[in-house]
Design a protein that fits this description.
This protein is mainly alpha-helical and about 400 residues long. The protein has a domain at about 15-280. Helices cover about 55% and strands about 5% of the residues. It has 13 helices and 9 strands. The protein has helices at about 70-80, 90-100, 115-120, 125-155, 160-185, 190-200, 205-235, 245-265, 275-295, 300-305, 310-325, 335-355, 365-385, and strands at about 50, 55, 65-70, 190, 200-205, 330, 390, 395, 405. The strands form 4 sheets. It has a 3-stranded mixed β-sheet with strand order 1-2-4. Strands 3-5 form a two-stranded parallel ribbon. A two-stranded antiparallel sheet has the order 6-7. A hairpin with a 6-residue loop joins β8 and β9. α4 runs antiparallel to α5 (about 160-185). It is globular, with a radius of gyration of 21 Å. It starts with about 50 loop residues before the first strand and ends with a strand. Bound molecules: fe (ii) ion (FE2) (2 copies). One fe (ii) ion binds next to α8. One fe (ii) ion (FE2) binds near residues 143 and 217.
Amino acid sequence: MATMMNKRSVGAFGKQAPVRSARVAARPSRSGSVRVAATAAADDLGFKKMRDGVKVASDETLLSPRFYTTDFDECERLFSLELNKNLDMAEFDAILAEFKQDYNQRHFVRNETFKAAAEKITGPTRKIFIEFLERSCTAEFSGFLLYKELGRRLKSSSPAVAEIFTLMSRDEARHAGFLNKAMSDFDLALDLGFLTKNRKYTFFKPKFIFYATYLSEKIGYWRYISIYRHLQRNPDNQLYPLFEYFENWCQDENRHGDFFTAVLKSQPDMVNDWAAKLWSRFFCLSVYITMYLNDHQRNAFYGSLGLNTTQFNQHVIIETNKSTERIFPAVPNVEDPEFFRRLDLLVQYNEKVLAIGRMDLPDAIKLVMRLPFIERMVAEVFQVFIMTPKETGSVDFSGNKAAIVY
Ligand SMILES: [Fe+2]
Ligand SMILES: [Fe+2]
């Protein structure tokens, strides 16, 4: 079963799939990275363990999932009924009532097929599978930490919004826990308590947290549902039972994204001026480009599920962008062929940079060799950023209170 490439019809994404995109979350700011002295040498797949059955977390890179923190005092002001007349509490109450339904309360129940399936995944596929699970678990856990802290900090000033955040952290804890259980099938679980205390937290202003979490939830939805549908069409590629849970799982992410739509609607400054347009595009591009480069570094993983990385990514980006244009005031025009042509160039340059990194040469030489490619990557990103965007959004702020016009 290991690394099989699908030889049958492979559905919408051809042959050759998900990691939650870089995802946001938080807590009191701390610094320091997760470099722990491994108590044992690397195993035969190259993974180090903190202790028996517990993996040392991967080093953080520019493209890896991060933990986030924000200005919680400003959040209190943004969700204050006295200070913000645009807060539509009826909408938040409706969202809260939906989250209380807890549709997935009984969804994340494992069965006996997990362990046996994990044992059948061997060799290089096993390694990329574990890396996929770790990235996904870290991203989900990052959401849990941020939402939990927001729930705690908003409790007295805005109880309904606080409860929504707490219920979303419930969902993310389930997601992260389910993925960590999957990692233990491979005898390499993460110590999430240790990560909470030791991983670096990146600070974003609330406005940027909302853009990033909205995108992260929606792109997560599209990734999960696309993989789910692909594997339903191509059951031979169902290497591991985790993916069978994605259909209901992704509905959690979709609901979380819809909550952030309501948040952005309640904050007109975040979606109605030139700065908002600029930042909206910036965040879209950051999220799309990060996913595109990350996933193309992991073609082998997507291949093991019978997905074509490029087709899968382009589908996810196009669909996420369609959702996003309903609330963001500007989004990149991803359907202009120039857009993916430039992203493909970025993938090529990134491959060169990574190949140089693997060479057995002094670091200074490798740096000099990488520079021309890094320069071309920066130039391509700039070119993508100055492409004519789509002016979008559906919120009319001409009155005192935001009116939704779609
Ligand atoms: Fe999640
Ligand atoms: Fe989520």
